[in-house]
Specification:
The protein is of the alpha+beta class. It is built from four helices and seven strands. The strands form three sheets. It has a three-stranded mixed beta sheet, with no helix packed on it. A two-stranded antiparallel sheet has the order 2-3.
Length: 162
């Protein structure tokens, strides 16, 4: 089984291209290294250089509840240790323990492939594949059909009209 992981820390598009025509991006730490961290910021309206218009609705948390002011190219656990963006589930799981438990038992989080791994591979999502970390509430949705390899429902032929 494979669990999807983010590629790494996000990069900011500078709006310019290089000589190959590719977008020039910079690491978060490039700009944040020159600014003083504000532990009280919890809304994009307070930001003046980047991140304006960011939809933020994650309780009373501030930006630095999760982002690491010592290294903006990593995240920050509640005990102050840094954690790589690729390990975002560790960060989310420290507050959302019941969801992580359900995920570990297959009852939360989307996947593709097979429940029965003897029939083929399975790929699982991570938290941010489905949830925006800045506004994680998932909209109400109807469940999709169950996996075909788990539930076999006989198909009845329509009754003939005589």
């Amino acid at each position: 089984m494979t669990i999807q992981r983010p590629a790494g820390p996000p990069r900011v598009n500078t709006g310019t291209t290089n000589f190959h025509g590719r977008a020039v991006t910079v690491a978060c730490g490039t700009c944040h290294a020159t600014t003083q961290p504000n532990t009280r910021t919890h809304a994009s309206a307070a930001l003046i250089q980047f991140h304006q218009g960011l939809n933020y609705a994650h309780g009373e948390l501030t930006c630095l509840s999760c982002h690491n002011p010592a290294n903006y190219d990593t995240l920050r656990l509640a005990d102050g240790r840094g954690v790589e963006f690729t390990d975002v589930m560790t960060l989310c799981g420290q507050c959302h323990g019941s969801q992580l438990r359900d995920y570990q038992h297959g009852a939360h989080g989307g996947m593709t492939g097979y429940w029965d791994l003897s029939r083929g591979p399975r790929t699982r999502n991570n938290c941010i594949n489905c949830h925006d970390p800045h506004s994680p509430k998932y909209p109400l949705a109807r469940p999709v059909f169950p996996p075909r390899d788990r539930i076999s429902v006989p198909v009845k032929a329509p009754a003939a009209n005589h």
